[in-house]
Amino acid sequence: MIGVVAATATGRAAAATLAAAWPDEVRLLTGQKAADALREAWRTCDAVVSFLAVGATVRVLAPLLGNKTTDPAVVCVDESMAFAVAVLGGHHGANLLAHRLTGVLGCTPVVTTASDQSNVTPLDSYGADLGFTVHNPELLAHVGAAVLSGEPVRLDGAAGWPLPPLPPNVSPEAPGEGHRIIVTDEAERDCMCHDGRFEGALVYRPKSLVVGVGSARGVTAGEVAGLVDEALAAGCLAAESVRCLATADLKADEEGILQVARERGWDVVTHPAEQLSSVEVPNPSEVVRAEVGTPSVAEAAALLSAGPRAELVVEKRKSANATVAVARLAPRGRLSIVGLGPGARDLVTPRAIAALRRAAVVVGLDQYVEQVRDLIRPGTRVITSGLGQEEERARTAVEEASAGHAVALVGSGDAGVYAMASPALEFADAGIDVEGVPGITAATAASNLLGAPLGHDHAYISLSDLHTPWEAIERRVTAAAEGDFTVCFYNPRSRTRDWQLPKALSILAAHRPPDTPVGYVRNATRPDETVTLTTLAELDPARVDMFTVVVVGSSRSRTVAGRFVTPRGYRWA
Ligand code: SAH
What we know:
Helices cover 29% and strands 24% of the residues. The protein is α/β, with parallel strands linked by helices. It has five domains: 2-112, 3-Layer(aba) Sandwich (Rossmann fold); 123-205, Udp-n-acetylmuramoylalanyl-d-glutamate--2,6- Diaminopimelate Ligase, Chain: A, domain 1 (3-Layer(aba) Sandwich), CATH 3.40.1390.40; 209-328, Nucleotidyltransferase, domain 5 (2-Layer Sandwich), CATH 3.30.420.180; 334-440, Tetrapyrrole methylase, N-terminal domain (Cobalt-precorrin-4 Transmethylase, domain 1); 443-565, Tetrapyrrole methylase, C-terminal domain (Methyltransferase, Cobalt-precorrin-4 Transmethylase, Domain 2), CATH 3.30.950.10. Helix 16 (470-482) runs parallel beside helix 17. It starts with a strand and ends in an 8-residue tail after the last strand. The site of S-adenosyl-L-homocysteine has 25 residues, from helix 15 and strand 27.
């Protein structure tokens, strides 16, 4: 029972609206002095909606406060209906009530129990980028409120789809009697198999079905539509989950098929007969082969369009002039390889932030993941490891994506520059989707601090000989020296690798003047950033470590007003 208290005409009107919306739950206490009404509501109801100021409400209730598990939940709504503030008992009904109030009064819920509330994946766009649609959006507000309030919400059918994370209270292990979210292409019907199974659950429709269609020339749209509906019904499948109609190239202009696709908003995908004939199907027909050059159109086109690991969920059904079959596709996991930039938060791109928030699994070096921990949504599985375990990290990320998850593999700078992208893509097969999110690499972060050293041709060279023989590195340094490239040295020097940088510099010095500018930046864009501009002759390698990138100018580079500049064009003498 929700006791509703108001003191003003506006408040009373809103209270009446609530009573009309939730007639079985609301008890109006608007006919008496507000303070008395509040006290009575507190005594007799499970929850209180107060159309009084938070301060006024708190002053009246303060002497009555007991235990948060037994006290009623209290939500205050302001006079302009802008906000529903969960004041007391957030996790005991107030957060949920604040969200429910928004559905009726249009106010914004204000919830203060957990800092990460606003960071939770919103249910109204859950899976939208995968093509998911919400079957019963009227349940969104209610189930969404339960998700945000930390109440248990059972999640079924999501496995295998690379969905964003939901907080830990949403899980397949939550009790089935409470709130439920179901991802399914199965239709709810009065058939034996799904009797009442989805009742009360928020249902998402994945785009998981492909309807294969074959037909005689001149088939009517009515006949095709009838057979499609019959096939879907036979499989207890939802039309909302149909991704496309698939058929043979020969049927690309078959008006009956095209019209059904138009009317239902489905794409039409066609395949050449010889491709269709290579698909193994349960019901091939020699008659069909003689006519169109493939023993199967409907089954083969459905399976082919649905891609690898598809399953035929409705075998070929026939009407006088058409055939229809339905295949279910196997969803693909996705791997985002995300560069976090050199360090500064405002150099993390918006796209990288979106990719982090989209991922249900984040894999990375512990120190990088810590940098962006606040951007990661609640419920995200975070897998970190220490320095030097690149290969293991890459393998883990790919395995998680192959298992169907949405994975972000994060790295500093650009994750493709001397970093995780290559080992990951060496492991990854074609069964997952891969997206790279570029980051600002150390060389450009440093060059912008130094001036404009990369204004002309330049080379990146890593001086780490842990995975590359020194001879190969030296050959490249020599080539860069002879080619007069500006050179950016990554991994220039560590405690155990101290002779490589002086050696590389001496090779360059043989080809360019001693006053060639050399800039080095330690911890570019991080709090302890240091920027040093010197010359080839004067550089002290001992000042350089593995947090530093070193930029050596070409023979044309100059220092102008204390800034390192490589001219855009060279006038060759
Ligand atoms: N993927 C990273 C590079 C990884 S290799 C990128 O794109 O930046 C590691 C080397 O990068 C370090 O040894 C150092 O030379 C350089 N580096 C990375 N971040 C840096 C920073 N913020 N400041 C200076 N050098 C950096």
